[in-house]
Amino acid sequence: MAVKDYDSNQITLVVGGVPMGGFGADNKVTISRNNDVTSIIEGVDGVDVTFARSNKKSGTISFDLQYKSEFDTLMDNLASLPTLVPVAFYDSSTLKSLITVGQVMSQPDIALGGEPADRPWTLIVANVDMSVAGKASALLGAVTPFVPV
User: In principle, which of 53, 55, 62, 130 could form an S-S bond with 30, CB 3.0–4.6 Å?
Assistant: First the structure.
């Protein structure tokens, strides 16, 4: 049996050239594909089967930020811009990486009470295909910094 360790500090999310921080208490990042990778088409008689590979690779990247985080303020600013921003994800423990472009899908509610609630942000992105390569960390250096005005 192989024993593996996990450290959330090995996960890097870069949005608009800014390495994100100020994550909420429960979840750092969720990456989801909008479409299945493959679907199956089965003949009515059950004899003929076709596997159809989808070329649709768009998806979403979701993450919670603390309300008082400067990164939450950055995301509010990005939400008001009608432009694509570079987005990068890297997990140094598995060498999984993702470089794409996206926009804020919707601006989350602000819920204030005894404590401010985390704000769940979702980016809609062009491509969520993961690459696994030894040089994936070098991809993060290719992201052009973006500074909102």
Answer: 62
Confidence of residue 134 (pLDDT cuts 50, 70, 90): very low
**Distance of alpha carbon 51 from alpha carbon 121, whole angstroms:** 34
**In the CATH scheme, what is the code of domain 11-140?**
2.40.30
Rounded Cα gap, residues 29 and 114, in angstroms? 26
Contact 125, 60 (CB under 8 A): yes
Domain ranges across the chain:
11-140
Considering the entire predicted model, what is its pTM?
Answer: 0.81
The DSSP result for 10-49, as a single string, is GEEEEETTEE---B-SS-S-EEEESS-SEEEEE-TTSS-E
